[in-house]
Design goal:
- By secondary structure, this protein is an alpha+beta fold.
- Helix content is 35%, strand content 31%.
- Helix 1 (21-42) crosses helix 2.
- The termini are close together.
């Protein structure tokens, strides 16, 4: 298991991950690219809920076979957000979080 530094998703959104380093890196790079394309197409600031829901769907599709537990933090026009995603794709929005990958 590897806990890495924060990953850039968008200018206003960062992510930390625990689990397999390659899985964390691939999932966050893919999401960063998707958010950049969405930002360029819409001309709007990326939303934390958009990043969390897209990551949730991506992790849920693989039913936990991607070894990446993630915490997403960011600020958007709706406010400040902190979300935790499990490798199975469940998401929690809480005022504070710790990253535990079992």
């Amino acid at each position: 298991m590897c806990i890495r530094d924060s990953h850039y998703l968008a200018p206003n959104i960062y992510c930390c991950g625990a689990g397999t380093a390659a899985d964390c890196e691939h999932v966050t790079e893919k999401m960063s690219s998707e958010l950049e394309l969405l930002r360029l197409n819409t001309g709007r600031v990326s939303r934390v809920m958009t990043a969390a829901s897209r990551l949730q769907w991506n992790l849920w599709q693989y039913r936990g076979n991607i070894g990446a537990a993630l915490i997403i933090a960011g600020v958007d026009p709706k406010g400040k957000w902190l979300a935790q995603l499990s490798p199975e794709g469940t998401t929690s929005y809480l005022p504070y979080l710790s990253l535990i990958h079992i």
